[in-house]
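Side project, low priority. Logging it here so it doesn't get lost.
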Amino acid sequence: MPPAHRHQANDEAYFVLDGEVEFRVGDEVVHGTNATFVLATAGEVHTFGNTSESSARLLVLHAPALDQYFEELELLWARTDPPDRQSELDLMRRHGMEPT
């Protein structure tokens, strides 16, 4: 799971296409399966991840979009070794996310 965080200016919506995904939004935990929809509005602390042994697919939408963040995240994870947690946190902060 990514570090729990909030977006000050972005809503984030998730739609589970396949598999099982756990969402944490505020104090609520949702175990999503096919066709589950979850919304984290701007300012809400949230995270998500596949906590099962099976693969999962999600549709994730940000309004407004966070294209530059995901381009940089891809570069960060394309390295030979996984990035350290601090590098991920720094990237999040540069794009208006506040890790909690």
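Brief comment: Strands lie at 5-7, 11-18, 21-25, 28-32, 37-40, 46-49, 57-63, 97-99.
Revisit when time allows.
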